[in-house]
Specification:
Helices cover 42% and strands 16% of the residues. The chain is built from 11 helices and 8 strands. Strand 2, helix 2 and strand 3 form a beta-alpha-beta unit. The chain binds phosphoenolpyruvate (PEP). Phosphoenolpyruvate binds next to strand 8.
Length: 251
């Protein structure tokens, strides 16, 4: 097992281009000695500013969604090819806010994953159960189903460009974090699912993050879990010092 942690910020619909550049300038010196990979996931309109501000650094830039068609009459959409053409390396797909507010389903997430991989992007694929599903005792089934459908048609080789973010919906933006044990249990289960799909070696190499109210105070414990290979960070990624503390905890 030789997995390099990935800490990714999901800025959601926050920061204008100028504000995004300013936040990256704040983050840059704080993460320059990071031993993990660091990514900022910014709104579409902030991508040029983020790419400029991160140039010459090890910080990667992610979009927060993409459409699966390459081009055409799809008003309001942005294709994976467009993102790749401008130099974006990562895309967050299947986030629970996309599923809840914008109608993303496991099958449209699968199409987005396909489009993103074909364009050469690395995908951060979000999966996770609702509180109701956890209380019904079907967390592992839900997460396995989301993972399997989203990865339909993805090859073992392509899995080197897929990161899975386990994000329990009840923990996102709520301040209610999964315990380290809960996070590890589900991340380990996702690894088992990957082992079933691709074999033990690919599963062992796969990066599986935890996301859901991870912050400067709880990151070290969550990231110390054997099957948690990093974090997808919402609220705390908008504060440079907190984000840097999480990055420093990822060793
Ligand atoms: C997220 O948006 O992916 C997330 C985990 O948000 P938060 O850290 O604010 O819970």
């Amino acid at each position: 097992m030789n997995r390099k942690y990935l800490i990714a910020g999901n800025w959601k619909m926050n920061k204008t281009p100028d504000e995004a550049a300013a936040l990256i300038e704040e983050i840059k010196p704080l993460v320059k000695d990071a031993t993990c990979s660091v990514v900022v996931g910014v709104p579409f309109v902030d991508l040029p500013a983020a790419l400029t501000a991160t140039k010459g650094t090890a910080i990667g830039v992610a979009a927060q969604n993409c459409y699966w068609e390459k081009s055409g009459a799809f008003t309001g959409e942005v294709s994976a090819d467009m993102l790749r053409a401008m130099g974006v390396q990562y895309v967050i797909l299947g986030h629970s806010e996309r599923r809840t507010y914008f109608g993303d389903t496991d099958h449209t997430v699968q199409k987005r994953v396909r489009g993103a991989l074909d364009a050469g992007l690395t995908v951060i694929l979000c999966v996770g159960e609702t509180l109701e599903q956890r209380e019904e005792g079907i967390t592992t089934e839900v997460v396995a189903m989301q993972t399997k459908i989203a990865l339909g048609g993805v090859s073992a080789e392509e899995m080197s460009r897929v990161v899975i973010a386990y994000e329990p919906v009840w923990a996102i933006g709520t301040g209610r974090t999964a315990t380290a044990q809960q996070a590890n249990e589900v991340c380990a289960h996702i690894r088992d699912v990957l082992s079933g799909l691709y074999g033990a070696e690919t599963a062992d190499q796969a990066l599986i993050q935890y996301g859901g109210s991870m912050n400067a105070g709880n990151a070290a414990e969550l990231l110390a879990q054997p099957d948690v290979d990093g974090g997808l960070i919402g609220g705390a990624s908008l504060k440079a010092a907190d984000f840097a503390t999480i990055v420093a905890a990822a060793k």
